[in-house]
Amino acid sequence: QVQLVESGGGLVQAGGSLRLSCAASGSIFSPNVMGWHRQAPGKQRELVARMSSGGSPYYSDSVKGRFTISRDNGENTVYLQMNSLKPEDTAVYLCFVVSHVTHWGQGTQVTVSS
């Protein structure tokens, strides 16, 4: 069984920064992909960023240049550094890992005030 535990969400003013962490445990196989989606009220779930265990990152256009994804393969941990945050970044951020199947974390709330 795979478990993902997220941390690092919170309330921040526009222009501020937050760093999200997600630690995965259990049967995780390589190669794999880890990343983050976000879900805002009334909006579709959006892929924010993902990174393969080989290190290739992907970013949505809405966060490119502001967010940075990184990972520690040895610890099965993925990070999301979020800079220059905007009110429209407000959402529940959900960590995921694709290892044969997709596993999800419980989500962490990010709120950006204007």
Write up this protein:
- The protein is mainly β and 114 residues long.
- Strands 2, 4, 5, 6, 9, 10 and 11 form a seven-stranded mixed β-sheet that branches.
- The radius of gyration is 13 Å and the shape is globular.
- The model has no long low-confidence stretch (mean pLDDT 96).
In short:
The chain has 114 residues and is mainly β. The chain contains no helices and 11 strands. The N and C termini lie far apart (40 Å).
**Number of helical segments?**
0
Question: For the terminal residues, how far apart are their CA atoms?
Answer: 40 Å
Sketch the topology as an H/E string, one letter per element. Answer: EEEEEEEEEEE
Gyration radius (Cα, Å) is 13 Å
Overall body shape: globular
Low-confidence segments, given as residue ranges, are none
Q: How much beta, percentage-wise?
A: over 45%
State mean pLDDT (0 to 100 scale): 96
Helical residues, percent: under 10%
Number of strands: 11
Question: Helix/strand/pairing class, anyone?
Answer: mainly beta
Largest sheet: 7 strands, mixed
